[in-house]
Amino acid sequence: MKKKGIWIISAFVYLTFFSTLDFSFNQEKDPYVRLRKRMVERQLAARDITDPDVLDAMSKVPRHMFVRPSDRRLAYNDYPLPIEEGQTISQPYIVALMTQHLKVKKGDRVLEVGTGSGYQAAVLSQLVDQVFSVEIKENLAKRSSQILKDLNYNNVNIKVGDGYLGWKDHAPFDAIIVTCAANHIPPLLIEQLKEGGRMVIPLERTSNYQTLTLVKKKDGKPVVERITDVRFVPMVGEIKKKKK
Ligand code: SAH
Q1: Do 124 and 110 touch, CB atoms closer than 8 A?
Q2: Which domains does the chain have, with CATH numbers?
Q3: Could you tell me which of 235, 213, 87 has the C-alpha nearest to residue 164?
Q4: Residue 179: CB within 6 Å of ligand 1?
């Protein structure tokens, strides 16, 4: 009788152990989970992305859902990828670097100029209360809104419009991220940034590359700091009519 009891307990322990093991194996079998973990370790943490919240957000957002379906297996590689309308989804490292420089926190309200695929907005949505993102191309705004909705990123608000003008109804913002290249800092974005707030923006140096720039608003004025050289698609719309 005693022996039988031991057998039952052992069988129970054995089954419980192997069923959990099987579960974790199954999770590991999801190729995207493994690829995403590797991306975070090798492309972000191994470089200078140290903010644990940024690393955590990057390890959660399914980047492969934001690229073109035919590019899914390339989604976690160390380079940008083309999306519709001749635009690009930025390299994972640049998304993380820009996010880290924003120093955002829960409770913040952030403006993004250039929704594109919606990936950067999804990463930000993990870190703040509300993301407002403006996209000039209607097709991209529609596509990214649908993806974000399907994935339940409910704190991202997208509108079709010219981000050069910001999004006045929801200003002021704690932080602003511009993901297309500008030849000057749009004055309305400074106006819509809170005092002490931070903006990250690629500013054109030549037609080929830009300086990723951190802009802090101090006493109502922009104070700029160089981060690194980058390549983004150009900002179009109103900015093209303005002088530098
Ligand atoms: N943040 C995006 C990458 C954006 S690529 C992502 O995570 O995928 C740059 C985007 O800026 C493009 O979608 C382009 O259409 C958009 N864009 C260019 N000029 C703009 C403007 N004036 N206002 C809003 N969006 C603009």
Answers
A1: yes
A2: 33-241 (3.40.50.150)
A3: 235
A4: yes
145 is catalytic: no
Q: Is the CB of 53 under 6 A from ligand 1?
A: no
Residues in the chain: 244
Q: Model confidence over 66-96: pLDDT tens digits?
A: 999 999 999 999 999 999 999 999 999 999 9
Confirm if 77 and 63 have CB atoms less than 8 A apart.
no
Tens digits of residue pLDDT in 92-118: 999 999 999 999 999 999 999 999 999
What's at 208, amino acid-wise?
N
pLDDT digits (tens, 9 = 90+) for 174-195: 999 999 999 999 999 999 999 9
Helical (H) or strand (E) element with 141 = helix 138-150
Residues 75 and 165: their CA atoms lie apart, in Å, by 31
**Which residues neighbour 174 within 8 Å (Cβ) at sequence distance 6 or greater?**
104, 108, 109, 110, 128, 194, 197, 198
Ligand 1 atom closest to Cα of residue 140: 13
CA-to-CA distance for 163 and 104, rounded, in angstroms? 20
Tell me whether the omega of the peptide bond preceding residue 172 falls within 30 degrees of 0, making it cis: yes
pTM of the model: 0.89
From 233, 238, 239, 242, mutation site for ligand 1 pocket: most ligand atoms within 8 A of C-beta: 233
